[in-house]
Amino acid sequence: MGVGIVFIVGAGPGPGDLITVRGLRALEKADVVIADELLPRSFFDDLDLRMTGVLVIRRDDRDPALSQDEVNDLLVQHALAEKTVVRLKGGDPGVFGRGWEEAERLSQQGIPWEIIPGLTAGTALPALAGLSLTHRGEARSVALATGRLREGELNVDLPRADSLVLYMSVSALEALVRRLVADGWPEQTPVAVIERGGLEWERHLRGALSEIAGIAQQARLQSPALIVVGEAARERVQRPTILFTGLDPANFRTLGTLLHWPALEIAEAPDAAEQVQDALDAARSAAALTVIFTSKMSARVFFAAAGGQWADLDLRSDLRIIAAGPGTAELLRRHCVGDVTIPDVPGSEGIIRLLGEAERGHCVLIQGEQASEALEQELTGRFDSITRLSLHRAVTHPQLGEMPLPEHDAIYLTSPSGVRAYHERFGMAAFERGVLCIGEPTRAALRTLGIDAKVVHPGVSDESSETQPTE
What we know:
- This protein is of the alpha/beta class and 471 residues long.
- It has four domains: 114 residues, 3-Layer(aba) Sandwich (Cobalt-precorrin-4 Transmethylase, domain 1); 111 residues, Methyltransferase, Cobalt-precorrin-4 Transmethylase, Domain 2 (2-Layer Sandwich); 97 residues, Rossmann fold (3-Layer(aba) Sandwich); 128 residues, Rossmann fold (3-Layer(aba) Sandwich).
- The protein is 30% helix and 22% strand.
- The chain is built from 16 helices and 22 strands.
- Helix 9 packs parallel to helix 11 and helix 14 runs parallel beside helix 15.
- The protein is globular.
- The protein starts with a strand and ends with a helix.
């Protein structure tokens, strides 16, 4: 009997797009994935990975969560069953990640393995938060340490460097501050705390060493959080902190240091699978076929429901596929053999311009439930027949409002629904700082509250081209 292989992959500090190319290639080959509990559940969707047929096990899928010994046993079990296994770990496997403990167990069983490094939180999260761990002439050294030892005891032997980055230290912050002061760190040493770095609901806290424990207690700081002490906690370049309320921050990071606090989440329509099946049945008999995808979420729901049935339609010579934005087009190219067309102008207007006055055949228009009927009405007169699918809807994010708003310089809103959600949960306090928005529909919604917002387009993106027409 043969044996499989195990890839111990560092996934980076959270967002799927921070995984390395080598790590992504390992995931694409996986039969089994055993993932850490801190990785967001949207991780695979963020990468547009097709996980059909892949067994995905998260440590927190069971209560209590899987122990390290149980994870080791699962790695061995699936590898001995001749599976390609990915052990997907947050950060880097070799930096407080127990990756080498797992590799040791695999070696004892004669199972081949490979470590694929990833971005560790200690270097990645400060960079994302606008902090530099080293700076010529001022910050020449940095040390990574844990605030607690394996047995849960306080780490009293902290290294000395120009900057100190502490992992797993939230519960011991007050004691660690006393330890650092006793070790000779000045009480006015700058400290930055990055809570849920790179993830939704990220917060940044700053203060002097002598006051940071009180600041953290008042803010109800929770794990996971990274603590940066020393020169690295100073901001070298002043950038605005933007409270980003949209679904996907990928195209907006040039605006400043983003804190992703989504106003909405996407819920799949209960009858999505039935809608897709009916549309596929109708499309098979069409003389010519145009399929229009208006968002990444619509595309994800469609392909999940269509399964292998899409392959037959995808090979048709008379098939035309249109994506409303570049992000959707990127996803479609993972599923489609044929060319994907993107309008020169994003959104509904661009789709209408792209099409002729009189098109032939059948059109499948794939949208969300809250999408305007204007695009469907415009297309109805141009095709012989049209099927509109409403596969998802945006709802107020259930976690919105559970924590007080973080410190920020401006809030960025991407839809009228988002405006309403923030106003409902936070009142006018949500708009007390600078207010930015993506387009006129959102600006109009803000005007109804007496708020004059500045329209800022960071670039062509799915958020700008597809969220706006859904109101």
